[in-house]
Write a structure and sequence with these properties.
With 451 residues, the protein is mainly β. The chain has helices at 2-20, 54-61, 99-103, 123-127, 189-194, 379-388, and strands at 63-78, 84-98, 108-120, 141-153, 158-165, 206-214, 219-227, 249-261, 264-285, 291-310, 328-337, 346-357, 367-377, 395-408, 411-421, 428-429, 432-436, 440-450. The strands form 2 sheets. A 16-stranded antiparallel beta barrel has the order 1-2-3-4-5-6-7-8-9-10-11-12-13-14-15-18. A two-stranded antiparallel sheet has the order 16-17.
């Protein structure tokens, strides 16, 4: 049991808190269009507007600043380790330089970002689960974020990024799942728990190269190569400014197919990742009592994102509502599996869910959704439990219901509820070691502001 508690706490909580919380930047207005900077307070997409015209002039010149704040307040109503509340705040800054506008470098772009993280969430001390409650939850820190040069070639079909990168914004991504607050609906919990430092994900990007190529409107492919342990071999990268490059290799590749079924868009992805570092064997030790080291680790995954219904009416009014063109119902499903059970706490994982847009009368941009995640504990860990005579760890499950109200282009408000089944995959209750932790019940509220 001691081995599991150590591994569960070290990987399932610390690694999950530090790296599995795949942060999804706030989605305001139309993410594919330039932000609207003018108009009154409730019409524009940025709270601080156009800075007296300076912001538009800078953007026209090729310089764009972004500042987004996300704040999560959560309360564990019961179960898990104990009742209690927590708060996490994230200020994310970004600077984008369009090198084509600035110096005439066709297709060139430079980006630099930073994270300022405050507060303490409830995963470590209250709920004790593997799948982190909030996708911005991390230790108090001021961190350098992604910093990279991007080059577009061949009529923008080929794109190359090189620098300090986070893979969670490019790979295993579900647009439908981006609504949800729990970290596992971004960077899947298997990745965040099994990979060193949680893999190259928020808030620990790492040196790497990302390449994508679009064959046509339907098919594209992308691949990335990153440092194998973002925190560095000595687990010291205090401000993400050490740029470690000698900690093995993490490689990931993905094939993407975009479909259109009678006007209903869908995206289908298949991919795999490999990490070249050595991993501790879960249940086997050498003559000195130290864990046997195993070379390499890998996983396979698939993603489905599909819109299953879209409104075609004119929206009507509050008294006589009809389906609006903005209304839609979308579903997602993802699965990740790693066959090498002897070095992975979670050996397979899946999630699924839906979100519905525009179904609240008079609020065409609001989203409501429900999602479910399942993280299965490996057979080797259960064998270790049996040998120690402890209750078996089997799986952790999370159900989340969220409602995102888009108040303005710059403000989102989002209440959410999460129900965590078997926190830690079945960790024992510290006060009653012969019993598992009770299911945790969490309510929370997220605020997002784009400045």
């Amino acid at each position: 049991m001691a081995n599991f508690v150590t591994r569960s706490a070290g990987l399932g909580i610390a690694a999950a808190l530090l790296a599995s919380a795949a942060f999804v930047a706030p989605a305001y207005a139309d993410d594919d269009a330039p932000a609207k900077l003018t108009g009154d307070l409730f019409e524009r997409d940025k709270l601080t507007g156009d800075w007296g015209g300076a912001r538009t002039k800078l953007r026209d010149f090729g310089i764009e600043f972004d500042a987004d704040v996300t704040a999560d307040s959560s309360y564990n109503l019961g179960g898990g380790l104990k009742k209690g509340k927590g708060f996490t705040g994230l200020l994310q800054l970004g600077l984008t330089l369009d090198l084509e506008k600035i110096v005439g470098w066709t297709g060139g772009e430079f980006y630099a970002g930073a994270y300022f993280i405050r507060g303490q969430g409830i995963t470590a001390n209250e709920t004790g689960n593997l799948l982190t409650i909030s996708n911005i939850e991390a230790e108090h820190a001021n961190l350098l974020g992604e910093v990279y040069f991007k080059q577009k070639l061949l009529d923008d079909k080929l794109q190359i990024k090189i620098g300090q990168l986070a893979a969670d914004g490019d790979f295993v991504v579900s647009e439908t799942a981006a609504l949800f607050v729990n970290s596992t609906f971004g960077w899947p919990g298997l990745n965040g728990t099994d990979l060193p430092s949680g893999g190259p994900a928020y808030p620990v990007p790492t040196p790497g190269v990302h390449v994508s190529y679009e064959f046509n409107d339907a098919f594209s492919v992308q691949a990335g190569v990153y440092n194998g342990d973002p925190a560095g071999r000595d687990d010291f990268n205090k401000h993400n400014t050490d740029f470690p490059t000698n900690d093995g290799t993490f490689a990931i590749g993905e094939l993407i197919y975009k479909a259109d079924f009678g006007g209903l868009p869908g995206t289908y992805k298949a991919g795999a990742w490999y990490n070249s570092l050595h991993f501790d064997d879960i249940s086997r030790v050498d003559g000195a009592g130290d864990p046997i080291r195993r070379k390499g680790d890998y996983a396979l995954y698939g993603v489905i994102d599909q819109t299953v219904w879209q409104g075609g009416g004119d929206g009507g009014d509050l008294k006589n509502p009809t389906p609006s063109p903005e209304q839609s119902l979308s579903v997602f499903a993802r699965a990740v599996v790693t066959p090498q059970e002897n070095r992975n706490l979670i050996d397979w994982y899946f999630d699924l869910g839906f979100n519905a847009k525009g179904f609240t009368p008079g609020r065409p941009d609001d989203l409501f959704g429900v999602a479910f995640a399942y993280a299965h504990i490996s057979k080797d860990q259960r064998d270790l439990d049996r040998a120690a005579g402890d209750p078996l760890h089997r799986a952790e499950m999370v159900i989340e219901a969220s409602y995102q109200a888009k108040i303005t282009g710059w403000l989102n408000l989002q209440p959410y509820f999460q129900y965590v089944v078997r926190p830690g995959g079945g960790d024992p209750d510290p006060d009653r070691p012969n019993r598992r932790l009770k299911d945790a019940k969490v309510i929370g509220f997220r605020t997002q502001v784009a400045f």
